[in-house]
Amino acid sequence: MLISEAWAQTAGFGSDNIFVSLMPLILIFAVFYFLLIRPQQKRQKAHRASVTATKKGDKIITGGGIYATVVKAVEGSDDVTVEIADGVRIRVARMTIQDILTKPSEAKSDSAKAGDKSKKQSGGKDKAVQREGGLFNKLAGKKQ
Questions:
Q1: Which three-class secondary structure state does DSSP give residue 134?
Q2: Would you state the pLDDT for residue 19?
Q3: What is the pTM of this model?
Q4: Max intra-chain CA distance, the chain
Q5: Which helix (H) or strand (E) holds 101?
Q6: Residues 6+ apart with CB under 8 A from 122
């Protein structure tokens, strides 16, 4: 006979202790939970809360990529009415709102702060006008 007989050997490491053999699987699951599953659940919860809190005047982006302004949002309703152009209003499902760009109160206060800040820095003139005027004067050979 050319082939010799093979004899089975006993297991080399502690196969009697099931906890030791399941430890790598438990560690892999824990890593996946804390690095992937838990953060995704937090993001979904925050998105759901912000979508249900949309109200009139919010600027949004729908799941289809349409930029719109919320015109009518009834609390407890599954849909909102949005305006995508002057006089063009459509109803969209609340859960298709992908992102809320600005809240009405934030937009007013941010634009007012930005306008005041640029006026203070430029002494009442717009920065772009100062830059263009400065560039024009340099090209014309005039000193400021």
A1: helix
A2: 84
A3: 0.55
A4: 106
A5: strand 97-102
A6: 129, 130
What angle in degrees, to the nearest 10, is found between the helix axes of 127-140 and 104-122? Answer: 30
Whether the Cβ atoms of residue 58 and residue 104 lie closer than 8 Å to each other = yes
* First vs last C-alpha separation in the chain: 105
CA–CA dist 69, 80 (Å, integer): 10
On whether the CB atoms of residues 94 and 80 are closer than 8 A, the answer is yes
Q: Are 51 and 94 in contact (CB under 8 A)?
A: yes
Instruction: Output the six-digit token pair for 131.
Output: 């830059």
Beta partners for residue 81, in sequence order: 72, 91
Any idea which residue has 């809360």 for tokens? 49
pLDDT value at position 104? 66
Do you know the residue count of the chain?
144
DSSP SS3 for 82: strand
Residue 126: C-alpha distances to residues 80, 89, 107 (Å) = 39, 36, 20
* Residues 66-120: tens digit of each pLDDT: 999 999 998 888 899 999 999 999 999 999 999 999 876 665 555 555 555 545 5
Instruction: Provide the percentage of residues in the chain whose pLDDT is more than 90.
Output: 49
Give the C-alpha distances (Å, rounded to integers) separating 94 from 4, 11, 54.
73, 59, 9
